[in-house]
Amino acid sequence: MAGDRTKRCELDQEKYDADDSVKIICLGDSAVGKSKLMERFLMDGFQPQQLSTYALTLYKHTATVDGKTILVDFWDTAGQERFQSMHASYYHKAHACIMVFDVQRKVTYRNLSTWYAELREFRPEIPCVVVANKIDADTQVTQKSFNFARKFSLPLYFVSAADGTNVVKLFNDAIRLAVSYKQNSQDFMDEVLRELENFKLEQKEEDAPDQEPSSRIESPSPT
Ligand SMILES: Nc1nc2c(ncn2[C@@H]2O[C@H](COP(=O)(O)OP(=O)(O)OP(=O)(O)O)[C@@H](O)[C@H]2O)c(=O)[nH]1
Ligand SMILES: [Mg+2]
């Protein structure tokens, strides 16, 4: 039971409305190295064994951006086909996206367009970065040009979770992009959601005419 409560609390997405909290999601095919990149950034470690992510893992991180403490939740999902396409709540309130492919497997690069289309369906405006992972296995690949990133004007990072190349830079840039998106968000969907929330609040007030206005919008006091 306590476990259930913790889970609900962890997945409570209202916290992402607070100024100091951002949500960054990770997308890409299975085995491109999404989880290993997270582990490299957060634990500065790399265990080569393959343990495919089951559905969803949340990684928590605290960062300092322009002197301000920011709580970052990284959402890491399974790239396996049996989990595609993802539930809308994975994208809900995300402030940035890290999209990964494996430089050794062309199909994972080709599939970026499918991941990107789904991302844009739910989050039309959030910053997205493209990540070419596993460059330790083929350093020549950094000389290649990858049109996908250019076509959509997305930043491209050549990284390696195995030896750590560019991993810290990638994640720090993604955090900065998420924070700046949050501060300047013009996202149409965000505005629609805000409008809907205000509308619901107004409706509630109309439905409860006997109560004092202040008591209607207060949160329940902690017990
Ligand atoms: N050589 C090399 N291997 C890597 C690198 N990053 C990940 N791998 C290997 O690739 C495999 C898959 O890595 P994961 O991080 O589990 O991949 P994932 O994208 O999280 O996969 P799913 O959870 O199934 O979606 C593992 O065997 C890792 O050891 C890298 O930078 N270089
Ligand atoms: Mg994984």
From TrEMBL:
For this chain's UniProt record, which GO biological process terms are given? cilium assembly; flagellated sperm motility; photoreceptor cell morphogenesis; single fertilization
Signal sequence region: none
Q: Which InterPro entries match?
A: P-loop_NTPase, RabL2, Small_GTP-bd, Small_GTPase
- GO CC, any one term: intraciliary transport particle B
Q: Which SMART domains match?
A: RAB, RAN, RAS, RHO
Superkingdom per UniProt: Eukaryota
Spell out the residue ranges making up region: Disordered: 201-223
Cite the Gene3D superfamilies for this sequence.
P-loop containing nucleotide triphosphate hydrolases (3.40.50.300)
Which controlled-vocabulary keywords does the entry list? GTP-binding, Nucleotide-binding
Similarity-based family = Belongs to the small GTPase superfamily. Rab family.
Q: Which NCBIfam families match?
A: small_GTP
PANTHER family noted in UniProt: PTHR47978
What protein name applies here? Rab-like protein 2B isoform X1
Q: Which organism is it from?
A: Dipodomys ordii
The upper taxonomy is: Eukaryota, Metazoa, Chordata, Craniata, Vertebrata
